[in-house]
Amino acid sequence: MPNASNSQTWSLPPLGANPSSAGAGTNPGSFACKPDLGGALAFSSPDTPGMPAPSDKTAWDFMPADWNYADGHWVAPAGFTPVTQLEHARLGSVTSEMQRVAEREGHLTPEQVRDEVAAGRMVIPANPVHLGYKLDPMAIGRASHTKINANMGASPVSSNTAEEVEKLHWAERWGADTVMDLSTGGDLDATREAIIRGSTVPIGTVPIYSMIIGRQIEDLDADMILSCLEHQAQQGVDYFTIHAGVLREHLTYVQKRLIGIVSRGGSMLAKWMIHHGEQNPMYTLWDDICQIMRRYDVTFSIGDGLRPGGLADATDHAQLAELSTLGELTERAWANGCQVMVEGPGHVPFDQIEYNMKLQRERCHGAPFYVLGPLVTDIFPGYDHITSCIGATAAGYHGAAMLCYVTPKEHLGLPKRDDVKQGVIAYKIAAHAADVALGIPGARDHDDELTKARAALNWEKHFELAYDSDTARAYHDEDLDVDTDFCAMCGHDWCSVRISKEIQEFASGKDDAYAQNQPKVTLALTPDQQEILEKRGVLSPEEIHRLASKTRTAMGAESGHQAACHSDRADDAEAEALQTSSL
Fold first, then answer.
1. Closest CA to 280 of 217, 331, 333, 228
2. Is the confidence at residue 558, as pLDDT, over 80?
3. What is the pTM of this model?
4. Among 396, 416, 438, which residue terminates a domain?
Protein backbone atom coordinates (compact mmCIF):
# COMPACT_ATOMS: atom_id res chain seq x y z
CA MET A 1 0.00 0.00 0.00
CA PRO A 2 1.44 3.41 -0.92
CA ASN A 3 1.98 5.83 1.93
CA ALA A 4 -0.75 8.46 1.99
CA SER A 5 1.88 11.16 2.39
CA ASN A 6 3.22 10.22 -1.05
CA SER A 7 -0.10 10.81 -2.80
CA GLN A 8 0.25 11.82 -6.44
CA THR A 9 -2.62 14.30 -6.24
CA TRP A 10 -2.40 17.94 -5.30
CA SER A 11 -4.29 21.13 -5.92
CA LEU A 12 -2.85 24.23 -7.57
CA PRO A 13 -3.85 27.76 -6.60
CA PRO A 14 -6.21 29.61 -8.95
CA LEU A 15 -4.46 30.26 -12.25
CA GLY A 16 -4.13 33.55 -14.08
CA ALA A 17 -3.03 33.82 -17.69
CA ASN A 18 -0.32 31.78 -19.37
CA PRO A 19 2.71 33.98 -20.21
CA SER A 20 3.53 31.60 -23.07
CA SER A 21 1.67 32.42 -26.29
CA ALA A 22 1.92 28.79 -27.41
CA GLY A 23 1.40 27.21 -23.98
CA ALA A 24 4.86 25.70 -24.41
CA GLY A 25 6.21 23.13 -22.01
CA THR A 26 4.43 21.63 -19.02
CA ASN A 27 4.03 24.73 -16.84
CA PRO A 28 0.35 25.19 -15.83
CA GLY A 29 0.47 29.00 -16.15
CA SER A 30 0.74 32.05 -13.92
CA PHE A 31 -0.30 31.96 -10.27
CA ALA A 32 -1.21 35.66 -10.49
CA CYS A 33 -4.80 36.92 -10.65
CA LYS A 34 -6.75 36.56 -13.86
CA PRO A 35 -6.20 39.59 -16.09
CA ASP A 36 -8.59 42.48 -15.44
CA LEU A 37 -7.86 44.75 -18.41
CA GLY A 38 -10.15 47.75 -18.18
CA GLY A 39 -10.54 47.22 -14.43
CA ALA A 40 -8.66 48.30 -11.34
CA LEU A 41 -6.38 45.25 -11.20
CA ALA A 42 -5.10 44.83 -14.79
CA PHE A 43 -2.27 42.33 -14.20
CA SER A 44 -1.91 41.81 -10.46
CA SER A 45 -0.78 39.49 -7.70
CA PRO A 46 -3.24 37.79 -5.31
CA ASP A 47 -3.61 39.80 -2.11
CA THR A 48 -2.03 38.52 1.06
CA PRO A 49 -4.64 38.85 3.86
CA GLY A 50 -4.78 42.37 5.23
CA MET A 51 -3.69 44.15 2.05
CA PRO A 52 -5.55 47.38 1.08
CA ALA A 53 -8.21 46.88 -1.58
CA PRO A 54 -7.92 48.82 -4.85
CA SER A 55 -9.54 52.24 -4.95
CA ASP A 56 -13.00 52.37 -6.48
CA LYS A 57 -12.08 55.71 -8.10
CA THR A 58 -10.15 56.57 -11.28
CA ALA A 59 -9.18 59.73 -13.11
CA TRP A 60 -12.78 59.82 -14.39
CA ASP A 61 -13.80 60.82 -10.85
CA PHE A 62 -11.59 63.92 -10.93
CA MET A 63 -12.66 65.86 -13.99
CA PRO A 64 -12.13 69.57 -14.69
CA ALA A 65 -14.83 71.72 -13.14
CA ASP A 66 -15.97 73.10 -16.50
CA TRP A 67 -16.60 69.68 -18.13
CA ASN A 68 -20.15 68.29 -18.11
CA TYR A 69 -21.45 64.72 -18.06
CA ALA A 70 -24.30 64.17 -20.50
CA ASP A 71 -25.77 61.19 -22.35
CA GLY A 72 -23.25 58.78 -20.87
CA HIS A 73 -20.07 60.68 -21.64
CA TRP A 74 -18.10 63.75 -20.67
CA VAL A 75 -18.30 66.91 -22.75
CA ALA A 76 -15.57 69.55 -22.77
CA PRO A 77 -16.50 73.25 -22.78
CA ALA A 78 -17.02 74.98 -26.12
CA GLY A 79 -13.78 75.84 -27.88
CA PHE A 80 -11.73 73.39 -25.80
CA THR A 81 -8.61 72.01 -27.52
CA PRO A 82 -7.14 68.83 -26.03
CA VAL A 83 -3.39 68.98 -25.39
CA THR A 84 -2.45 66.10 -23.11
CA GLN A 85 -2.78 62.40 -23.82
CA LEU A 86 -5.22 62.29 -20.88
CA GLU A 87 -7.46 64.92 -22.45
CA HIS A 88 -7.46 63.17 -25.83
CA ALA A 89 -8.36 59.90 -24.11
CA ARG A 90 -11.18 61.52 -22.15
CA LEU A 91 -12.67 62.70 -25.46
CA GLY A 92 -12.43 59.18 -26.90
CA SER A 93 -9.58 59.92 -29.32
CA VAL A 94 -6.84 57.43 -30.14
CA THR A 95 -3.67 59.43 -30.74
CA SER A 96 -0.76 58.31 -32.88
CA GLU A 97 1.22 57.89 -29.66
CA MET A 98 -1.43 55.49 -28.32
CA GLN A 99 -1.26 53.52 -31.54
CA ARG A 100 2.51 53.27 -31.26
CA VAL A 101 2.24 52.11 -27.66
CA ALA A 102 -0.14 49.34 -28.70
CA GLU A 103 2.30 48.23 -31.40
CA ARG A 104 5.16 48.08 -28.94
CA GLU A 105 3.21 46.32 -26.18
CA GLY A 106 1.78 43.64 -28.44
CA HIS A 107 -0.96 42.48 -26.06
CA LEU A 108 -2.96 45.74 -25.99
CA THR A 109 -5.16 47.37 -28.64
CA PRO A 110 -5.01 51.13 -29.26
CA GLU A 111 -8.46 51.41 -27.68
CA GLN A 112 -7.31 49.61 -24.55
CA VAL A 113 -4.34 51.96 -24.31
CA ARG A 114 -6.70 54.93 -24.66
CA ASP A 115 -9.01 53.61 -21.95
CA GLU A 116 -6.13 53.00 -19.52
CA VAL A 117 -4.84 56.53 -20.11
CA ALA A 118 -8.33 57.96 -19.60
CA ALA A 119 -8.65 56.09 -16.30
CA GLY A 120 -5.31 57.49 -15.11
CA ARG A 121 -3.82 53.99 -14.83
CA MET A 122 -1.37 54.58 -17.69
CA VAL A 123 0.77 57.47 -18.82
CA ILE A 124 2.50 58.18 -22.13
CA PRO A 125 5.34 60.62 -21.32
CA ALA A 126 5.72 62.38 -24.66
CA ASN A 127 6.39 66.11 -24.70
CA PRO A 128 5.51 67.30 -28.24
CA VAL A 129 8.88 69.07 -28.40
CA HIS A 130 10.69 65.77 -27.80
CA LEU A 131 8.40 64.03 -30.29
CA GLY A 132 9.83 66.44 -32.84
CA TYR A 133 13.28 64.90 -32.29
CA LYS A 134 13.72 61.13 -31.89
CA LEU A 135 11.28 60.10 -29.16
CA ASP A 136 9.60 56.71 -29.67
CA PRO A 137 6.41 56.80 -27.56
CA MET A 138 6.04 54.26 -24.76
CA ALA A 139 3.66 53.71 -21.86
CA ILE A 140 3.93 53.18 -18.12
CA GLY A 141 1.07 51.40 -16.37
CA ARG A 142 0.19 48.08 -14.82
CA ALA A 143 -1.69 46.94 -17.95
CA SER A 144 1.55 47.26 -19.92
CA HIS A 145 4.91 45.55 -19.55
CA THR A 146 6.95 46.60 -16.52
CA LYS A 147 9.32 49.41 -17.48
CA ILE A 148 12.70 50.45 -16.11
CA ASN A 149 14.37 53.83 -15.74
CA ALA A 150 18.08 54.62 -15.75
CA ASN A 151 19.40 57.65 -13.86
CA MET A 152 22.42 59.62 -14.97
CA GLY A 153 23.74 63.15 -14.83
CA ALA A 154 26.87 65.14 -14.18
CA SER A 155 27.83 66.07 -10.63
CA PRO A 156 29.89 69.02 -9.37
CA VAL A 157 32.92 66.70 -9.07
CA SER A 158 32.51 64.18 -11.88
CA SER A 159 31.47 63.72 -15.51
CA ASN A 160 30.55 66.10 -18.34
CA THR A 161 27.97 66.50 -21.10
CA ALA A 162 29.71 64.19 -23.59
CA GLU A 163 30.08 61.45 -21.01
CA GLU A 164 26.43 61.72 -19.98
CA VAL A 165 25.26 61.48 -23.60
CA GLU A 166 27.45 58.40 -24.01
CA LYS A 167 25.85 56.88 -20.90
CA LEU A 168 22.41 57.74 -22.32
CA HIS A 169 23.09 55.74 -25.49
CA TRP A 170 24.61 52.94 -23.44
CA ALA A 171 21.47 52.78 -21.26
CA GLU A 172 19.27 52.75 -24.37
CA ARG A 173 21.34 49.94 -25.86
CA TRP A 174 20.83 47.74 -22.82
CA GLY A 175 17.11 48.39 -22.57
CA ALA A 176 16.31 51.42 -20.42
CA ASP A 177 12.72 52.49 -21.15
CA THR A 178 13.22 56.03 -19.79
CA VAL A 179 16.20 58.04 -18.59
CA MET A 180 16.36 60.71 -15.91
CA ASP A 181 18.95 63.48 -16.15
CA LEU A 182 19.82 64.23 -12.52
CA SER A 183 22.72 66.58 -13.25
CA THR A 184 23.78 68.82 -10.38
CA GLY A 185 27.03 70.10 -11.86
CA GLY A 186 28.56 71.30 -15.10
CA ASP A 187 26.44 73.01 -17.74
CA LEU A 188 23.03 71.64 -16.73
CA ASP A 189 21.18 73.33 -19.58
CA ALA A 190 23.53 72.05 -22.27
CA THR A 191 23.57 68.54 -20.81
CA ARG A 192 19.77 68.42 -20.68
CA GLU A 193 19.43 69.76 -24.22
CA ALA A 194 21.92 67.23 -25.59
CA ILE A 195 20.24 64.32 -23.83
CA ILE A 196 16.75 65.30 -25.04
CA ARG A 197 17.87 65.78 -28.64
CA GLY A 198 19.80 62.52 -28.66
CA SER A 199 17.32 60.21 -26.93
CA THR A 200 14.68 57.84 -28.29
CA VAL A 201 13.28 57.27 -24.77
CA PRO A 202 11.38 59.71 -22.53
CA ILE A 203 13.56 62.00 -20.44
CA GLY A 204 12.73 63.01 -16.89
CA THR A 205 14.31 65.62 -14.64
CA VAL A 206 14.13 66.92 -11.08
CA PRO A 207 13.81 70.66 -11.81
CA ILE A 208 14.61 71.82 -8.29
CA TYR A 209 18.25 70.91 -8.97
CA SER A 210 18.42 73.62 -11.64
CA MET A 211 16.40 76.07 -9.57
CA ILE A 212 19.11 76.41 -6.94
CA ILE A 213 22.20 76.56 -9.12
CA GLY A 214 24.04 79.71 -8.05
CA ARG A 215 21.77 80.42 -5.10
CA GLN A 216 20.79 79.07 -1.69
CA ILE A 217 17.65 76.95 -1.31
CA GLU A 218 16.31 79.59 1.10
CA ASP A 219 16.24 82.10 -1.78
CA LEU A 220 13.82 80.02 -3.86
CA ASP A 221 10.56 81.79 -4.71
CA ALA A 222 7.49 81.25 -6.88
CA ASP A 223 8.87 83.04 -9.96
CA MET A 224 12.04 80.95 -9.91
CA ILE A 225 10.05 77.74 -9.61
CA LEU A 226 7.57 78.46 -12.40
CA SER A 227 10.10 79.95 -14.83
CA CYS A 228 12.42 76.97 -14.44
CA LEU A 229 9.58 74.52 -15.08
CA GLU A 230 8.48 76.46 -18.14
CA HIS A 231 12.03 76.50 -19.53
CA GLN A 232 12.59 72.77 -19.10
CA ALA A 233 9.17 72.01 -20.58
CA GLN A 234 10.06 74.14 -23.61
CA GLN A 235 13.27 72.13 -23.99
CA GLY A 236 11.24 68.93 -24.33
CA VAL A 237 11.48 67.19 -20.94
CA ASP A 238 8.83 64.45 -20.82
CA TYR A 239 8.29 64.12 -17.07
CA PHE A 240 9.15 66.11 -13.96
CA THR A 241 9.75 64.89 -10.45
CA ILE A 242 8.08 67.46 -8.20
CA HIS A 243 8.46 66.96 -4.44
CA ALA A 244 5.17 68.59 -3.48
CA GLY A 245 4.06 65.97 -0.96
CA VAL A 246 6.55 66.90 1.78
CA LEU A 247 4.51 69.13 4.07
CA ARG A 248 5.53 71.17 7.11
CA GLU A 249 3.41 68.99 9.34
CA HIS A 250 5.29 65.88 8.18
CA LEU A 251 8.70 67.04 9.37
CA THR A 252 8.05 66.16 12.99
CA TYR A 253 7.70 62.52 11.95
CA VAL A 254 11.27 62.53 10.61
CA GLN A 255 12.97 63.57 13.85
CA LYS A 256 13.62 60.06 15.18
CA ARG A 257 14.59 58.45 11.87
CA LEU A 258 18.01 56.82 11.75
CA ILE A 259 18.87 58.57 8.49
CA GLY A 260 16.49 61.52 8.18
CA ILE A 261 15.53 62.64 4.67
CA VAL A 262 17.55 61.02 1.87
CA SER A 263 15.75 62.62 -1.06
CA ARG A 264 17.76 65.61 -2.30
CA GLY A 265 14.58 67.47 -3.27
CA GLY A 266 12.83 66.51 -0.06
CA SER A 267 15.70 67.60 2.16
CA MET A 268 16.11 70.95 0.39
CA LEU A 269 12.41 71.74 0.64
CA ALA A 270 12.38 70.74 4.30
CA LYS A 271 15.17 73.25 4.89
CA TRP A 272 13.20 75.90 2.97
CA MET A 273 10.07 75.31 5.07
CA ILE A 274 11.97 75.45 8.37
CA HIS A 275 13.75 78.65 7.32
CA HIS A 276 10.61 80.45 6.13
CA GLY A 277 8.09 78.91 8.51
CA GLU A 278 5.80 78.34 5.52
CA GLN A 279 4.27 75.44 3.62
CA ASN A 280 6.13 73.65 0.80
CA PRO A 281 6.01 76.07 -2.17
CA MET A 282 5.61 73.14 -4.59
CA TYR A 283 2.40 72.26 -2.75
CA THR A 284 1.03 75.81 -2.60
CA LEU A 285 1.86 76.39 -6.28
CA TRP A 286 0.43 73.05 -7.41
CA ASP A 287 -2.34 74.39 -9.64
CA ASP A 288 0.05 76.85 -11.31
CA ILE A 289 2.51 74.03 -11.89
CA CYS A 290 -0.29 71.94 -13.38
CA GLN A 291 -0.99 74.64 -15.96
CA ILE A 292 2.61 74.54 -17.17
CA MET A 293 2.63 70.74 -17.23
CA ARG A 294 -0.59 70.70 -19.23
CA ARG A 295 0.63 73.18 -21.85
CA TYR A 296 3.50 70.88 -22.82
CA ASP A 297 1.95 67.55 -21.80
CA VAL A 298 4.75 66.99 -19.32
CA THR A 299 3.83 64.03 -17.14
CA PHE A 300 3.96 64.41 -13.38
CA SER A 301 6.22 62.02 -11.50
CA ILE A 302 5.15 63.13 -8.05
CA GLY A 303 8.23 62.75 -5.89
CA ASP A 304 8.48 60.85 -2.62
CA GLY A 305 10.61 63.30 -0.68
CA LEU A 306 10.20 61.31 2.54
CA ARG A 307 11.11 57.90 1.17
CA PRO A 308 13.04 55.76 3.67
CA GLY A 309 16.82 55.67 3.32
CA GLY A 310 17.24 52.53 5.42
CA LEU A 311 15.19 49.51 6.47
CA ALA A 312 14.83 50.97 9.96
CA ASP A 313 12.76 53.88 8.60
CA ALA A 314 10.58 52.00 6.11
CA THR A 315 6.77 52.15 6.13
CA ASP A 316 6.85 54.78 8.88
CA HIS A 317 4.48 57.64 9.66
CA ALA A 318 6.44 60.17 7.60
CA GLN A 319 6.47 58.02 4.48
CA LEU A 320 2.79 57.06 4.64
CA ALA A 321 1.60 60.56 5.54
CA GLU A 322 3.37 61.85 2.45
CA LEU A 323 1.83 59.06 0.36
CA SER A 324 -1.64 60.24 1.37
CA THR A 325 -0.70 63.74 0.21
CA LEU A 326 0.53 62.30 -3.09
CA GLY A 327 -2.95 60.85 -3.55
CA GLU A 328 -4.48 64.29 -3.07
CA LEU A 329 -2.01 65.82 -5.54
CA THR A 330 -2.83 63.09 -8.06
CA GLU A 331 -6.50 63.98 -7.89
CA ARG A 332 -5.76 67.68 -8.39
CA ALA A 333 -3.43 67.04 -11.34
CA TRP A 334 -6.05 64.88 -13.05
CA ALA A 335 -8.61 67.65 -12.53
CA ASN A 336 -6.19 69.93 -14.39
CA GLY A 337 -5.91 67.49 -17.31
CA CYS A 338 -2.37 66.30 -16.49
CA GLN A 339 -0.91 62.82 -16.72
CA VAL A 340 0.37 61.46 -13.39
CA MET A 341 2.63 58.77 -12.04
CA VAL A 342 3.74 58.55 -8.41
CA GLU A 343 7.17 57.78 -7.00
CA GLY A 344 7.83 55.34 -4.18
CA PRO A 345 10.49 53.93 -1.86
CA GLY A 346 13.40 53.31 -1.39
CA HIS A 347 14.69 50.87 1.27
CA VAL A 348 11.94 48.43 2.30
CA PRO A 349 12.16 45.01 4.00
CA PHE A 350 11.02 42.27 1.65
CA ASP A 351 7.96 41.43 3.76
CA GLN A 352 6.63 45.02 3.50
CA ILE A 353 6.91 45.49 -0.26
CA GLU A 354 3.46 44.16 -1.16
CA TYR A 355 1.79 46.44 1.40
CA ASN A 356 3.65 49.49 0.06
CA MET A 357 2.61 48.74 -3.51
CA LYS A 358 -1.02 48.10 -2.69
CA LEU A 359 -1.43 51.03 -0.33
CA GLN A 360 -0.26 53.32 -3.15
CA ARG A 361 -2.73 51.65 -5.52
CA GLU A 362 -5.52 52.51 -3.08
CA ARG A 363 -4.43 56.02 -2.07
CA CYS A 364 -3.51 57.15 -5.60
CA HIS A 365 -6.44 55.44 -7.35
CA GLY A 366 -4.33 53.22 -9.59
CA ALA A 367 -1.98 55.93 -10.91
CA PRO A 368 1.21 54.19 -12.12
CA PHE A 369 3.70 53.59 -9.32
CA TYR A 370 7.36 54.31 -10.11
CA VAL A 371 9.64 52.87 -7.44
CA LEU A 372 13.34 53.04 -6.66
CA GLY A 373 14.35 49.44 -5.96
CA PRO A 374 13.44 48.94 -3.22
CA LEU A 375 16.63 47.72 -1.54
CA VAL A 376 15.85 44.82 0.77
CA THR A 377 19.03 45.05 2.84
CA ASP A 378 21.48 47.84 3.67
CA ILE A 379 24.80 46.03 4.19
CA PHE A 380 26.01 45.38 0.63
CA PRO A 381 27.41 48.65 -0.76
CA GLY A 382 28.91 47.89 -4.16
CA TYR A 383 26.21 45.29 -4.80
CA ASP A 384 23.09 47.40 -4.41
CA HIS A 385 22.05 46.67 -8.00
CA ILE A 386 21.46 43.15 -6.66
CA THR A 387 19.95 44.00 -3.28
CA SER A 388 17.53 46.36 -5.02
CA CYS A 389 16.56 44.27 -8.03
CA ILE A 390 15.40 41.58 -5.61
CA GLY A 391 13.00 44.11 -4.14
CA ALA A 392 12.18 45.48 -7.58
CA THR A 393 11.00 42.06 -8.77
CA ALA A 394 8.59 41.87 -5.86
CA ALA A 395 7.51 45.46 -6.44
CA GLY A 396 6.73 44.77 -10.10
CA TYR A 397 4.77 41.65 -9.24
CA HIS A 398 2.74 43.46 -6.57
CA GLY A 399 1.86 46.52 -8.63
CA ALA A 400 4.75 48.85 -9.53
CA ALA A 401 4.60 49.94 -13.17
CA MET A 402 8.16 51.26 -13.52
CA LEU A 403 11.33 50.38 -11.66
CA CYS A 404 14.11 52.92 -11.20
CA TYR A 405 17.43 51.15 -11.53
CA VAL A 406 20.18 51.12 -8.94
CA THR A 407 23.79 50.63 -10.00
CA PRO A 408 26.77 49.12 -8.15
CA LYS A 409 27.84 52.72 -7.41
CA GLU A 410 24.67 53.54 -5.42
CA HIS A 411 25.58 55.29 -2.15
CA LEU A 412 29.22 55.38 -3.28
CA GLY A 413 29.64 57.68 -6.28
CA LEU A 414 28.54 58.67 -9.76
CA PRO A 415 27.91 55.61 -11.99
CA LYS A 416 30.22 55.07 -14.93
CA ARG A 417 29.47 53.40 -18.26
CA ASP A 418 29.78 49.82 -17.05
CA ASP A 419 27.83 50.60 -13.87
CA VAL A 420 24.97 51.79 -16.08
CA LYS A 421 25.02 48.48 -17.96
CA GLN A 422 25.05 46.45 -14.74
CA GLY A 423 22.15 48.46 -13.33
CA VAL A 424 20.05 48.28 -16.48
CA ILE A 425 20.51 44.54 -16.90
CA ALA A 426 19.72 43.85 -13.23
CA TYR A 427 16.47 45.77 -13.64
CA LYS A 428 15.58 44.19 -16.98
CA ILE A 429 15.80 40.89 -15.10
CA ALA A 430 13.49 42.22 -12.38
CA ALA A 431 10.96 43.69 -14.81
CA HIS A 432 10.92 40.61 -17.04
CA ALA A 433 10.57 38.25 -14.08
CA ALA A 434 7.60 40.28 -12.84
CA ASP A 435 5.94 40.21 -16.28
CA VAL A 436 6.30 36.43 -16.51
CA ALA A 437 4.92 35.97 -13.01
CA LEU A 438 1.96 38.27 -13.76
CA GLY A 439 1.07 36.23 -16.85
CA ILE A 440 1.35 39.08 -19.34
CA PRO A 441 0.65 37.43 -22.72
CA GLY A 442 3.81 36.45 -24.55
CA ALA A 443 6.08 37.48 -21.67
CA ARG A 444 7.69 34.02 -21.53
CA ASP A 445 8.03 33.42 -25.27
CA HIS A 446 11.66 34.54 -25.42
CA ASP A 447 12.51 32.30 -22.45
CA ASP A 448 10.88 29.33 -24.17
CA GLU A 449 12.85 29.87 -27.36
CA LEU A 450 16.12 29.97 -25.47
CA THR A 451 15.12 26.84 -23.54
CA LYS A 452 14.58 25.01 -26.86
CA ALA A 453 18.00 26.10 -28.08
CA ARG A 454 19.58 25.01 -24.80
CA ALA A 455 17.83 21.64 -24.94
CA ALA A 456 19.09 21.10 -28.49
CA LEU A 457 22.63 22.10 -27.44
CA ASN A 458 22.47 24.69 -30.20
CA TRP A 459 25.03 27.08 -28.77
CA GLU A 460 24.91 29.55 -31.61
CA LYS A 461 21.15 30.00 -31.23
CA HIS A 462 21.54 29.99 -27.46
CA PHE A 463 23.84 33.00 -27.58
CA GLU A 464 21.79 34.73 -30.26
CA LEU A 465 18.76 34.60 -27.95
CA ALA A 466 20.69 35.58 -24.81
CA TYR A 467 19.93 39.12 -23.62
CA ASP A 468 23.66 39.89 -23.43
CA SER A 469 25.05 37.70 -26.20
CA ASP A 470 28.62 38.94 -25.87
CA THR A 471 28.91 38.12 -22.18
CA ALA A 472 27.30 34.71 -22.57
CA ARG A 473 29.57 33.79 -25.49
CA ALA A 474 32.70 35.11 -23.78
CA TYR A 475 32.01 33.18 -20.57
CA HIS A 476 31.42 29.99 -22.57
CA ASP A 477 34.56 30.33 -24.66
CA GLU A 478 36.65 31.16 -21.61
CA ASP A 479 36.42 27.46 -20.70
CA LEU A 480 35.73 25.66 -23.98
CA ASP A 481 35.82 27.44 -27.31
CA VAL A 482 34.02 24.67 -29.19
CA ASP A 483 30.27 24.49 -29.75
CA THR A 484 29.77 20.80 -29.15
CA ASP A 485 27.25 18.62 -27.32
CA PHE A 486 28.37 19.48 -23.78
CA CYS A 487 29.90 22.41 -21.93
CA ALA A 488 32.68 22.79 -19.40
CA MET A 489 30.35 22.83 -16.41
CA CYS A 490 29.56 19.12 -16.55
CA GLY A 491 31.81 17.81 -19.29
CA HIS A 492 30.86 15.04 -21.67
CA ASP A 493 29.82 12.18 -19.37
CA TRP A 494 27.79 14.26 -16.95
CA CYS A 495 25.83 16.41 -19.39
CA SER A 496 22.19 15.87 -18.40
CA VAL A 497 20.95 17.92 -21.35
CA ARG A 498 22.83 15.69 -23.81
CA ILE A 499 21.51 12.57 -22.08
CA SER A 500 17.91 13.86 -22.16
CA LYS A 501 18.30 14.66 -25.84
CA GLU A 502 19.47 11.09 -26.52
CA ILE A 503 16.46 9.50 -24.76
CA GLN A 504 14.06 8.93 -27.66
CA GLU A 505 10.95 9.05 -25.47
CA PHE A 506 11.70 12.63 -24.41
CA ALA A 507 10.76 15.63 -26.56
CA SER A 508 13.72 17.52 -25.12
CA GLY A 509 16.13 18.87 -27.72
CA LYS A 510 14.27 17.47 -30.71
CA ASP A 511 12.67 20.62 -32.15
CA ASP A 512 13.78 20.61 -35.79
CA ALA A 513 13.98 24.40 -35.84
CA TYR A 514 16.80 24.22 -33.30
CA ALA A 515 18.66 21.16 -34.52
CA GLN A 516 22.42 21.55 -34.75
CA ASN A 517 24.31 18.46 -35.76
CA GLN A 518 27.44 20.24 -36.90
CA PRO A 519 29.61 21.21 -33.97
CA LYS A 520 32.26 23.79 -34.68
CA VAL A 521 35.02 25.83 -33.22
CA THR A 522 33.55 29.17 -32.25
CA LEU A 523 34.34 32.35 -34.09
CA ALA A 524 37.12 34.60 -32.90
CA LEU A 525 36.19 36.85 -30.00
CA THR A 526 34.71 40.20 -30.90
CA PRO A 527 36.32 43.29 -29.33
CA ASP A 528 33.47 43.49 -26.81
CA GLN A 529 33.90 39.83 -25.85
CA GLN A 530 37.64 40.28 -25.57
CA GLU A 531 37.12 43.26 -23.23
CA ILE A 532 34.77 41.19 -21.05
CA LEU A 533 37.38 38.46 -20.56
CA GLU A 534 40.16 40.97 -19.97
CA LYS A 535 38.13 42.53 -17.14
CA ARG A 536 37.46 39.12 -15.59
CA GLY A 537 41.18 38.41 -15.41
CA VAL A 538 40.77 34.62 -15.47
CA LEU A 539 42.66 33.98 -18.69
CA SER A 540 46.14 35.22 -19.48
CA PRO A 541 46.57 37.89 -22.18
CA GLU A 542 48.08 35.19 -24.39
CA GLU A 543 45.03 32.94 -24.01
CA ILE A 544 42.65 35.81 -24.74
CA HIS A 545 44.74 36.72 -27.80
CA ARG A 546 44.45 33.12 -29.02
CA LEU A 547 40.66 33.23 -28.69
CA ALA A 548 40.55 36.59 -30.44
CA SER A 549 42.69 35.46 -33.39
CA LYS A 550 41.91 31.77 -33.87
CA THR A 551 40.71 30.26 -37.14
CA ARG A 552 37.98 27.76 -37.92
CA THR A 553 40.55 25.08 -38.70
CA ALA A 554 41.30 24.68 -35.01
CA MET A 555 40.38 21.27 -33.65
CA GLY A 556 39.43 20.04 -37.10
CA ALA A 557 36.04 21.74 -37.13
CA GLU A 558 36.09 23.09 -40.67
CA SER A 559 32.77 23.28 -42.50
CA GLY A 560 31.38 19.81 -43.14
CA HIS A 561 33.37 18.15 -40.37
CA GLN A 562 32.65 17.48 -36.72
CA ALA A 563 34.92 18.80 -34.01
CA ALA A 564 37.35 16.23 -32.67
CA CYS A 565 35.70 16.35 -29.23
CA HIS A 566 32.14 15.62 -30.41
CA SER A 567 30.68 12.44 -28.90
CA ASP A 568 30.05 11.00 -32.35
CA ARG A 569 33.82 11.01 -32.97
CA ALA A 570 35.47 10.77 -29.57
CA ASP A 571 34.95 8.26 -26.81
CA ASP A 572 34.54 9.49 -23.27
CA ALA A 573 38.25 9.46 -22.46
CA GLU A 574 39.18 11.32 -25.65
CA ALA A 575 36.44 13.93 -25.15
CA GLU A 576 37.54 14.47 -21.57
CA ALA A 577 41.15 14.81 -22.61
CA LEU A 578 40.29 17.30 -25.33
CA GLN A 579 38.17 19.34 -22.95
CA THR A 580 40.95 19.36 -20.36
CA SER A 581 43.50 20.52 -22.90
CA SER A 582 41.17 23.31 -24.03
CA LEU A 583 40.58 24.79 -20.58
1. 217
2. no
3. 0.90
4. 438
